[in-house]
What does this fold into?
Amino acid sequence: VHILELGGLKRQYLVHVPQAYNPAKPAPVLVALHGGGGNMRLQADDGRYGLISKSESAGFLAVFPNGYSAWPGGRLATWNAGACCGSARDKGVDDVAFVRAVVADVQRRYSVDAQRVYATGMSNGGMLAHRLACEAADVFAGIAAVAGTDNTLACTPSRAIPVLHIHARDDDHVLFN
It folds into this structure.
C-alpha cells in the first residue's frame, strides 16, 4: 500500500508489478478505479475483475487507487465524478488531482511508458474515468468506462482521447440513459 497526502487527506493506492517487469523497458500503466461503495482491494481482486492475471500476461503495471472514504481501511469509498457520487462529491474531493498524483508517484517508482497510461473504472469509477478524459487528457492515452456514465459538469479536454464505454441497457444501478 502506497500512501499520498493531498488536500489534507491521506489517500492510498495499490500497485501490481508483473513478474516480467524490466526497468530497462518502460511499462504501460492501467489505473483501475473501483465502483462506489467499493475499495482498491475489491478492484484488485483477480477473481472479480481479472486485472492481475491480465497484467501478468500483457506486462502492464496495474494501479488501484482508493476512493474517498471516512471509514477505517478505506472501505465504502466513492469518487467525485462531477454530478456523482456520495461523500466524495459532497465534500468536493479533488479526485482528478489525486489520480494525477498517483500516476506521478508510480512514474517516480517504476519505469513507465508515459504514452501508454490508461484509466478504466467500474460504475462510479467509470464515471471518474470519463472525468479524467475531460480533465487529464495530458496524462491518459485513453479510458474505458464500464457501467459508468459521463457525469462531468464540464468537459474541455486538452486533446481528444479514445473512450470505450461499456454499458448494459438494463442496468438498474447506473441507468443507461
